[in-house]
């Protein structure tokens, strides 16, 4: 089958299940943003980072596909079969966050997002993750969304934040703290 079916040329696309919707539909915006997030994660994986980080991030990429499938499913077809985000997926992120946090200095101030390329990619991925979360919550106002999908995105942005700090530590990037000036 060709990549270009041309069925999307008039600005509509198909949900999983076949229903046609406009491409600016909040549901398309939600899973389109999960696709963007997944691409950023791929960029982090392609950097020179420890295998332990890479293997977890590959799991994350798989789970982003999973939640993308859940978001893409036509809500009027509840019997569609697909993989689903599980509580254990969230627990895995929490375990990794806690493990990385053990070796990090306590945060008493906001740090400016940056340090080096790898750390910056983590911040960009984190911001896109939070945008995806916002789009999914917008969708949840008008359609049923599995709560574990929202929880997963929320935990993933925390994971990406801590991963950024951990990679800053591992690459000896200095953390620059925000020093509010001219406070009045
Ligand atoms: N602009 C877009 N933003 C986000 N997701 C999109 C967009 N266009 C399509 N999709 C989604 O991406 C997946 C693959 O779509 P596909 O590439 O077949 O797009 P299409 O425009 O509907 O079809 P075609 O490209 O064949 O004309 C589908 O889940 C589709 O709903």
Task: Give the gist of this structure.
The protein has helices at 26-45, 51-72, 87-102, 117-142, 147-170; strands spanning 12-14, 20-22. It has 184 residues and is mainly alpha-helical.
Describe the structure.
This protein is mainly alpha-helical and 184 residues long. The protein has one domain (12-73, 82-170): Hypothetical Protein Ta1238, Chain: A (Up-down Bundle). The chain has five helices and two strands. The chain has helices at 26-45, 51-72, 87-102, 117-142, 147-170, and strands spanning 12-14, 20-22. Helix 1 packs antiparallel against helix 2, helix 1 packs antiparallel against helix 4 and helix 4 packs antiparallel against helix 5 (147-170). The mean pLDDT is 96. Bound molecules: adenosine-5'-triphosphate (ATP). Adenosine-5'-triphosphate (ATP) binds at residues 4-9, 13-14, 23, 28, 32, 72.
Please give a handful of descriptors for the protein shown.
184 residues, mainly alpha, Hypothetical Protein Ta1238, Chain: A, two-stranded antiparallel sheet, 5 helices, binds adenosine-5'-triphosphate, EC 2.5.1.17
